[in-house]
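User: I want to check something. If I give you two sequences, will you return the structure for each one separately, not as a complex?

Assistant: Yes, each is folded on its own. Here is the first sequence with its structure:
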Amino acid sequence: MRDLYQRLNVPPQANDEELQQAVARCPNSALRQDAEAAFAVAKRRADYDKLHATLSDIGKLRTQLGLTHGAHWQDDVANDFSVPPDEIVSRHDKLVDRVSHVVKLYNRWRGLRGAWLLIAIFTIGTGLGIALGLTLSQTIAA
């Protein structure tokens, strides 16, 4: 399906008068006939607008998933609703990056846990030994 708004170079919010002027200026007779058929009756335009919105959403979704048409489709009717690929990372990729980061931090903590446990036990033992030694030396001296 063609994106008639794009092909006529008018926004989807254009009023009926702007659409009629764009259709009248259109040099392609087949495109002009399609536009007249879609926009001549208010109900047909409403139906076309619903379908246009759905196909536009699908085009945006395809772009976010990295599914764009190849170079040989770029100027074809099949590419009318495809949005140019953006450099924005998809939500899935962001989620994978965040989970990977958390897993890395967990693995690092897990690897150091044994060493930190030994250091903590040694520190606590040394502190208790010193405290006990000071207590004993004060009781013996007294």
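And separately, the second sequence with its own structure:
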Amino acid sequence: MSEKFLSLLSKFSFYNIISILLFSACTPSIDKTPYKELRELAFETEYDDIGIQNPKGKTVVYGIIMDWPTQREIVTLATFLSGDASIFLTSGASFIGGGGRESIKKSSVRLIHKYAYLWKQGKKVRWTPNPDLDQVRFFFLTTQGTYYLEDTVSEIDSDTSTLTPIFDEAQAVISEIRIEAEKEKDDDDE
């Protein structure tokens, strides 16, 4: 992970950042939550930040980031080949890191290994587009730049999109994060 990202992590206790399950009925302004900054930090992560050595010209997908609009807010899932996985919500709730939990690490790495090939179908971006309320976007962080694919929420929901399988695998990562977040919350409540 990037130094900026790691320094941000140290400012929060695990319990404070575990609030992934807190969904609010109304969506606050993105500018008043850490969402935008956390999302930008995820996109700024370089392959050497997560411990991948110089691949000597070979393209390696070291991260997949998904922007997913829900009825209430935008959810951004950031997964890395190191096993780290984070979720950022426009409401301000977030779960950062995740790589220290084996189930999250396995799920994150599985997503990347299984769908890394899709970067070749993507469009290369020079800047990261803001999330869209109608589009699910997958960004592939590669050693040759960032590429993305997108489809509408309705196409993915109706299983008519070619991106439905990667969306389903990303949901598996989110499920692992939720399970771990609930375990941590239960432990703290005792």
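Because they were folded independently, the notes below concern the second chain alone. The chain has one domain: 3-51+59-189. Residues 3-51+59-189 form one domain.
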